[in-house]
Design brief:
570 residues, mainly beta, Glucose Oxidase, domain 1, Jelly Rolls, 8-stranded mixed beta sheet, 6% helix, 39% strand
């Protein structure tokens, strides 16, 4: 796809930004051949279609929102229509092109179609597609849910579809794929004690989409958070119409790098902003924001939930060709890694839509490898995956059909990490119908161009791929770590009951290091029994505590000897 073609939400600010999509130009048999022509670009308010069809589809969406039948003429005049893809099960089915044509006939200037899965495909026009002449963006189920939530809340969601080059006189922009992200989205506070231990380069490429020369251009990077504020500005610059300008740490036009004297734990927000002398006439792409976390217990490259700091996913993938096994990994190395121990992995999965397969009882293999192949970076011809040595491993068995839920699996024994040692933390599925949670919200393309270090390799029947599915698609995996100076390996190994995640909103995993049979009893802070669950197996159990009120609780597990532990229900 042309990098200048975008599907971008401009309002409300809470969900503003670019979203992954495919368009008319990616599929075949469409009347509008592509969106490279800026004259085909559109921007307006999103409106959900309603063709009056009764019933609810398999995803819980009204058939009326699939837009298969004719819509009232003029009902969508000047708006961008939102429709849903056919659910794959019901008889209420029509082709993509028919949905777009129905919206067009009702006056829509564009269409956003929400997929039934967390994936993107190149959509063919097929029936009725050749008769359409408005732009069309196809987005994932998760991204669609984000937009729909704001629409249902009564907010005006405004979006842009197309290529805006030359549409305005004064128009600069920056994009995530050409902007350096934080080098990691979550890292351990034990490894970030000062600027020499944690810092990263900055940079972005500015594009002058406008039709006139722009002066007094500045790029400002701000960081807010527990150890901030921090700010750096580069400029002023001048750019001719249609030109691009690279502003990167160490480059001809330089900025940064980012560093702080100390890093208190918490969430930090890094924001790039580009300004110019003349007011920007299309400023939705003048700012890019990234969050990163300093934590005492997790290492991850994916986005994290703002409340729980747990990995989240918005798409689910496995390799094409349905290999039986698939292993998704994150890479890690640090000169002070011996300050940490590793306990297990956070991850999420879903099963194939309409496959009839559930996650209940599925086995997930967890492995922490020492990656002992000797290479320098991604350009080194010696880069290989021939010398992987498992130093920790475990298994997670799904207790129920926890589709898309972030879960935790512990290693059979914790392990202390080694300084400057490469590691791969991997989770492996052995079912062709299981898809692994990934995140598209962080684009590491420019970050990896600078460091040349792998972040998220994966492995299937075709072998390992150092960049996994790509620098803009990260597995939603988190490595749970602990401070090795405060908690010894022997203490963890001998600890009979551990609870994850803690605090929790809904599900709580109990990891036993002893033979447990009988009952799990839950007491509130006053000592009142508020819950009772039976233990069906020895090593691991996940229980639902979503019905409990927020507060502090004690779990007592009956077995060879009673063990107790506290948890917080959020």
């Amino acid at each position: 796809m042309n990098a200048q073609v975008s599907f971008t939400v401009t309002a409300p600010s809470s969900i503003a930004g670019g979203y992954d999509f495919t368009s008319n130009g990616d599929g075949t048999d469409w009347g509008l051949p592509n969106l490279d022509d800026p004259n085909d670009a559109v921007m307006d308010t999103l409106v959900l279609v309603d063709d009056g069809t009764s019933g609810i589809n398999a995803q819980g969406i009204p058939f009326a929102n699939e837009g298969c039948n004719a819509l009232t003429p003029g009902s969508l005049t000047g708006k961008i229509a939102v429709v849903y893809r056919y659910d794959g099960v019901s008889s209420n089915v029509c082709w993509y092109g028919t949905k777009v044509l129905n919206a067009q006939n009702a006056g829509a200037i564009g269409v956003v179609m929400i997929n039934r899965d967390d994936a993107l495909i190149n959509v063919p026009g097929t029936t009725d597609g050749p008769f359409t002449n408005i732009p069309f963006a196809f987005i994932s189920k998760s991204d669609g849910a984000i937009l729909r939530a704001r629409m249902d809340a009564g907010e005006d969601v405004v979006a842009f579809i197309g290529n805006k080059t030359g549409l305005f006189a004064n128009d600069l922009g920056i994009s995530k794929e050409r902007t350096v992200a934080p080098k990691i989205s979550a890292t351990a506070s034990q490894l970030t004690q000062n600027a020499s231990e944690f810092s990263f380069d900055l940079g972005t490429m500015i594009s002058n989409y406008g039709s006139t020369t722009q002066n007094d251009i500045n790029v400002t990077v701000d960081v807010t958070g527990p150890g901030a504020p921090w700010s750096e500005t580069a400029g002023p610059f001048t750019m001719q119409s249609g030109d691009t300008l690279n502003v990167f740490t160490g480059g001809t036009n330089t900025i940064g790098p980012f560093s702080l004297s100390n890093y208190p734990e918490g969430k930090y927000t890094l924001t790039y902003t580009v300004t110019q002398a003349n007011p920007d006439e299309s400023d939705f792409d003048n700012s890019i924001r990234y969050d990163f976390i300093i934590s005492d217990s997790i290492i991850a490259y994916c986005s994290l939930d703002s409340l729980t700091n747990m990995p989240i996913s918005n798409v689910n993938y496995r390799p094409a060709g349905a290999p039986v096994s698939f292993e998704a990994c994150i890479a890690f190395r640090d000169p002070n890694a011996s300050r940490l121990g590793a306990e297990g992995l956070y991850f999420s999965n879903v099963t194939g839509y309409n496959s009839g397969v559930t996650l209940d009882g599925e086995e997930i293999a967890l492995t922490l490898y020492q990656w002992d192949d000797n290479f320098t970076d991604l350009n080194d011809p010696n880069l290989a995956f021939n010398d992987l040595n498992a130093v920790a491993y475990g298994f997670y068995y799904y207790p129920s059909d926890l589709q898309g839920t972030t879960v935790y699996g512990s290693f059979s024994d914790p392990v202390q990490l080694l300084d400057n040692q490469r590691y791969l933390a991997c989770m492996k599925v052995n079912n062709t119908e299981i898809y692994v949670g990934h995140d598209t919200k962080i684009d590491y393309t420019e970050s990896i161009n600078g460091t040349l270090q792998p972040t998220s390799p994966n492995n299937s029947d075709n072998g390992f791929f150092a960049l996994g599915f790509g620098t803009d698609l990260t597995p939603s995996i988190g490595l749970k770590v602990f401070d090795a100076s405060e908690v010894s390996l022997s203490e963890l190994s001998n600890e009979k009951l551990r609870l994850y995640p803690n605090p929790t909103n809904d599900f709580l995993t109990l990891s036993f290091n002893a033979s447990m049979t009988g009952e799990i009893l839950i007491y509130d802070v006053q000592g009142k029994l508020v819950g009772q669950k039976s233990i069906q197996h020895k090593a691991l159990k996940t229980i639902d505590v979503s019905d409990l009120s927020p507060g502090i609780y004690t779990i007592e597990a009956e077995g060879d000897s009673n063990v107790r532990a506290k948890f917080v229900k959020q």
